[in-house]
Amino acid sequence: MILIKKVLRTIWTDKAPYLGSMFLIAFSCMLMVMMNLVSKNLNNTYSAYKSNHVMSDVEVYLDTELDMADMKKRFNVKIEQSGVTDYSSKDGQILRIFSFNTQINTPAVSSGKKLESGEILLDKLYAKKNGYEIGDIVQIAGKKYKYAGDMTLPNYIYVAKSKDEVIRDPKNFGLAVVDKDDFESIPNATPFYAIKFNNSNNLKAQETAMKGYLREKGTKIIKWENTEKNYSVSYVLVKINLMGKLSIVAPSMILLLTCVLTGILMWRLLNRESVIIGTLYAQGYRKKELMRHYLVFPLIVAGMGAMIGTIAGVFMINFLYNFMLTTFPMPKEPIVYDLGILMFSLLLPVVILCVSTIIVVNRMFKIRPSQLMKGNKKNDKANFIERKLRLDKFKFVTKFQIREQVRSLSRTIFLLFGIIVATMFLQYGLTMKSSVDYLLNEGISKLYHLKYEYVFNEYKRGAPPKGTEQFNTMYAIMDDEAETNFYITGLPKNSTRILLNDLKGNKLTPDKVIITTPLAKKMGLTIGDTIRFYNFEDGKKYSITIEEIADTYGGEFIFMPLSELNAMLDLPSDTYIGIFSDVEMTFAKKEIKTTKSMDAIKAGFHSLIDQMGIMIYSLTISAFVIGLVIIYLVTGLVVDEHKGTISLFKVLGYKKKEINKLILNSNIFTVIIGYILGVPLLVGSVDVMYQALAESLPMVIPAKLNIWYILLGFVIVMLTFELAKLMSRKKINRIAMSDALKSGTE
Amino acid sequence: MFIHILNLKKSYQSGVVTTEVLKGIEMKLEKGGIGVILGPSGSGKSTLMNIIGGIDRGDSGSVVVDGIEVNQLDDNKLTTYRREQIGFVFQFYNLVPSLTVSENIEVVSHISHSPLNMDEVLEAVGIKDKKHRFPRELSGGEQQRVSIARAIIKNPKLLLCDEPTGALDYSTSRSILQLLQQVNEKYGTTILMITHNTAIAAMADRVFKLRSGEIVAESVNQIPVPAERIEW
Questions:
Q1: Is the CB of B83 less than 8 angstroms away from the CB of A741?
Q2: Mind telling me which InterPro entries this protein's record contains (chain B) (predicted)?
Q3: Contacts A–B by Cβ distance under 8 A
Q4: Which end of chain B is more exposed for a tag (fewer CB within 10 A), N or C?
Q5: Which CATH class is domain B32-58+68-229?
Q6: Helix count (H) and strand count (E) of chain A?
Q7: Is B79 in Cβ contact with A653 (below 8 Å)?
C-alpha cells in the first residue's frame, strides 16, 4: 500500500517524538521483563532450595535435650539436632559455624568437594573477601581445618550477623560448616533443633501444640524461631516480592506516559493531516482503510520499542539474577524465560497504544469530510479554564506562559505526569538514604546514649557494675494473627542511657509505661489503651496500660520502670538481666547471652548507605534521561504547535532571546508543579514500601527526604529542563518568517 | 519621500531553475500617504512587501524607508526595524488563538518603546467591549480589527497590509478599509496595501500595478475616495 511509505516518511521527518516514545516503551518493557522474570526466577530458586535442601519450619533452642523419636511420632515431624557457635577468627571477625546437617537445612555445596572430617565449608563471599583459596587451612580454636569448598545454607540465605546490623559485611562476618564430630570439639557451641513438619498445612497450630507440649513437660524454650520469619530468610522473601511488585508499578507508569504521549502525537498528526484525511475520504477511502493506515504508527513505534525493550530485558536477566544471587546466595537454577511475560511485554504496549490511537482517530472521524478538507480548526476553541482565567494583573510573558499551559491540557498533563515520574525515579534512592540517615541520627543516636549492651544468661541482683546502668526485659507476644512480638524493657526511673521525648518534644522519664511510635503505629495503640500479651519465657498472660508515646524511630519497644517490671514478673525489685555501658567489658563466655555494640549497628547503617550509592546513581541517571526525553518531547510539541506564532513573533520584531523565553519557558510552571507534587508522592510511596518491609526489618523506617536532597533534585530537574530547551532552540531558529505570511493561525 | 525604491531585483533559486520575482522595481510613496499595490497572483506583490517590511532582502537595488536603507541592514538591525517602524496586517489575521484580544495586542505593545494606550486603540478599532474574548469567539471582521489594533498599538511609521480584506465579505471589508483610512488620518501612519481588488485602488493616494515582477502602471489619485463610498 502506497500509504505505508507516507507513514515511514512522516516518522522519519519528525523523528524525535517517535523515537522518544520508542525509547520510553523500550525502557518500560526492559524493566518489566527484567524485574518480573528475575523475581519469578528467584522465587523458583528459593522454592527449589527450600525443598531440595529441606528448609526447616522452625529452629528451637531448649534448656534440655529433646526426645526426638517421641517428638517425631507425636507431631509427625522431621527433627535434626544441630549446633551453632560464633568464633572470633581474627580481630573482631566472627565466623558463625554450624554443624553439618544431613536431613534438614542441608548445606548446598556450590564449589569444591563434599565435606569430610577435618574439613570446613565457607560462605563464598567471606572466603573471597578474606583471601581464602580452596585447599587453604583455616584455624579454629587451635584446630586446623582444610577449606574444602563453598556452601550456602537454606536457613541463612542473607548472611547478615544479626537483624540489628541490617547489612552483610563479608569481610568481618561469615558462615562455616564443619562435620558433626568436628563441631563437638568447638567450644561454646549452642545446640538447637531444626524441625520440619511433614504436614505443611496450618503450621501455626502445629507449632502452638508443640510449644504447649514442651512447656507442659517443663522444658524451657529459650528461643523459638520460625525460619521464614527469621531475618536471614524473610529479608530475601521481602526483596523478591518487592521486585515483583516494582516490576509492575514502574513500567506501568512509564507505559501510561507513553500512551498519553502517543495519543497527543496522533492527535497532532491527524490535525495536521485533516485535509489529507478529508481528501482521501472524498476520494472513496473507507474509515477502516484510513484507520488501518493510522494504526501503522503505533504498531511501528510500540512494536519496535517493545521488541527492543524485551530483548534488552532478556539479555539483562542473567546479569541481575547473578547479582541477586551474590546478595542472597542460593544454588543457581536454570533460568526460566516465561513465555507469557515475554508475550505480555511484546503485546501490551502494542495493544495499549493501538487502543489509544483508535480512540483518537475515531474522534477525528466524527468530523465531516468537508470540514476536514478545510483544515480542522476545532482545536482553536478556548476551553473552560482558558475562558475563566483573568490574567490582567500579570506581565505579558507570564500571561503568555500560563495561557500556553491551559491551552493544551493533554500536553500539560503529560508533562506534569512525566515530571512526577522522573522526580520519583530521581528521589527514590535519595529518599531511602535520607530515611536511613534520619533513622540513624534522629532515631538511634538520640535514643541510645550508650556504646555497649550486655545481656546475661541469668538474672543478676543488686547494684550494676560501676559506670553501667541495669535493665530487665520481657519478650512479649500478642495473641494476634501476626503473633506481634516486642520487648518490654524495664529501666531505672532516672535512666541516662535511654532518653525519650513525647510527641511534643518534651522530655519523658521512664517512670511511666511508654510505647515507641513505630510500635504504637503497628499495633494501633494510643495513650490509655491496655494491652494483653504473653510472656514468651513462661507463657503467662500479663496486661499493661500505655501512659505515654515516645517520638522515636529507634525501635519497637515498651519502656517501663524496672521495679514495676520486676514486680510484674514476680522478681525482686533489684533484679536485672543486662547492663548498658560506655566501655567494652569482658565477662565469662557462659555468663553472656548477647552483646550489642552501638558502633557496629551504626556501621551497619553506614554500609547500607554506602551500598545504596550505585542504586542512587543509576536511578538518578535514569531519571535524568527520562526527564530529558519527556521535557524535550513536550518542548518539541510546543514548538511544532507554535510554528505560526513563532514565525509571527519573528515578523513582529521579536528577538531570538525573547521568543525562546516566551515559547520554551512556557513549561516552567508545569515542571515546577510536577516536581513539587512528585516529592510527597514519592515519600508517600516509599512510606508504604517501608510498611511492607517493617515485617522483616528490626525497626520501622520513617520515610524522609532531606531538604538538601529536595533542592538537589530540583536543581537536577531544572538542569534537565535547560538542556531540553537548549536542544529545542535550533528548532525555533529553523522556523521561517514566511510561515506566518503563508497561512494564518486563526 | 517616505518610501523610495530604486531598481530592486529579487530572484529565487530552486534546484537548477532561477525565477526572477522582481525585475528592477522603482517606487515612491510620500509620508502619510496610502499606497495600493495591485496585481495578479505571482506578480511579486508579496515579495515586494516582504522586502519593504524587512522580512526578506532584495538581491540588488535600494529600498529606503524613512531614510533607512533596508536592503543593507543585517539580521539584528532588520529585527529592530520591524519592531520599531513597521506594523503588519495579514489576510488571515494571524492572531494567537490562546490569547485574548487584549493579550494579542500586548504581543506587540510588550516589545514597543512607547506604545499607544491600549483602551484608546481598542476604542479606535471598535472592539473595546471584546477585549477578554478569544479570537475564535470573534467574527472575521472583528479579528481583522484586532489585527489592525495589534499593528497600530506601537504607532508604526509604516503599516503594511497584505490583502486585509481578502478573507472578508463585502460589508465587513468596507468597514475594515474605513478603519484603515481612519488610522491613516488619526495617526498619520503611512499605509501600503496589496490587494487583488482593483476597486480598493480608489481610496489610495498612489496605485502601483505589478505584473511579472515589474511595475507596469503607476497612478496618483488627486482626491482619494472615502472607503465607505467604494463599491465592487
A1: no
A2: AAA+_ATPase, ABC_transporter-like_ATP-bd, ABC_transporter-like_CS, MacB-like_ATP-bd, P-loop_NTPase
A3: 97
A4: C
A5: alpha beta
A6: 23, 22
A7: yes
In tens, the pLDDT along B97-117 reads: 889 999 999 999 989 888 999
Domain ranges of chain B: 32-58+68-229
Give the chain A residue nearest B110 (alpha carbons): A396
Give all domains of chain A, ordered by start, each with its CATH number.
1-58+220-380 (no CATH), 64-199 (no CATH), 396-446+596-746 (no CATH), 452-583 (2.40.70)
Could you tell me which chain A residue has the CA closest to the CA of B167? A744
- Which chain B residues are within 8 Å of A641, Cβ to Cβ? none
Distance from C-alpha of A55 to C-alpha of A330, rounded to nearest angstrom: 12
Q: Which of B56, B76, B108 sits opposite A652 (nearest CB)?
A: B108
In chain B, what are the helix, strand and coil shares in percent, each to the nearest 5? 35, 30, 35
Could you say which residues from 190 to 229 on chain B have a Cβ atom under 8 Å away from some Cβ of chain A?
A: none
pLDDT 10s digits, A37-51? 999 999 999 999 999
The gap from C-alpha A438 to its chain's centroid, in whole angstroms, comes to 17
Give CA–CA dist A518/B141, Å, rounded: 70
* Local confidence band at A236 (pLDDT 50, 70, 90 cut-offs): confident
Residue written as grid cell 536532597: A709
Tell me if chain A has a CB within 8 Å of the CB of B129: no
Name residue, grid cell 476553541.
Answer: A381
d(CA B57, CA A200): 89
Residue B180 to residue B174: CA distance in whole angstroms: 10
Nearest Cβ partner for B95 among A386, A651, A745: A745
CA B206, CA B220: separation in Å to the nearest integer? 4
Q: What is the pLDDT of residue A608?
A: 67
Q: Give pLDDT tens digits for A558-613.
A: 999 999 999 999 999 899 999 999 888 888 766 777 788 888 777 777 776 776 67
Residue A84: beta bridge partners? A98, A190
Contact A746 B143 (CB under 8 A): yes
B107 vs A380, A652, A738: nearest CB = A652
- H-assigned helices in A335-461: 339-365, 369-373, 384-388, 396-407, 409-438, 445-447
In A, minimum Cα distance to B94 occurs at A744
> What is the complex's ipTM, to 2 decimals?
0.88
Which is it for the CA torsion B181, B182, B188, B194, positive or negative?
A: negative
| Closest to B51 measured CA to CA, from B179, B213, B229 | B213
pLDDT digits (tens, 9 = 90+) for B106-150: 999 989 888 999 998 998 888 989 999 999 889 989 999 999 999
* HSE-CB for A20 with a 13 A CA cutoff: 27
- The rounded distance, in Å, linking the Cα atoms of A151 and A132 is 14
Instruction: Sort out which chain B residues have CB atoms less than 8 A from A645's CB and list them.
Output: 96
Helices (H), A58-121: 68-75
Query: Residue B71 and residue B97: Cα distance in Å, rounded?
Result: 33
What are the residues of chain A with a beta carbon less than 8 Å away from any beta carbon of chain B?
377, 380-382, 386-387, 390-392, 396-397, 399-400, 403-404, 406-407, 644-645, 648-655, 658, 737-738, 740-741, 743-746
Alpha helical stretches, state H, A466-544: 517-523
State how far residue A417 is from chain B, nearest Cα, in angstroms: 23
- Alpha carbon of B7: minimum distance to chain A alpha carbons (Å): 24
Please tell me the distance from the alpha carbon of residue A71 to that of residue A84, in angstroms, as a whole number.
22
First to last CA, chain B: 31
Put simply, the answer to whether B108 touches A746 (Cβ < 8 Å) is no
Query: Does the CB of B155 have a partner CB in chain A at under 8 Å?
Result: no
Query: Grid coordinates representing B1?
Result: 519621500
B196-209 in b/e form (b: 16+ CB < 10 A) is ebeebbbbbbbbbb
- CA-based angle A86:A90:A96, to the nearest 5? 20
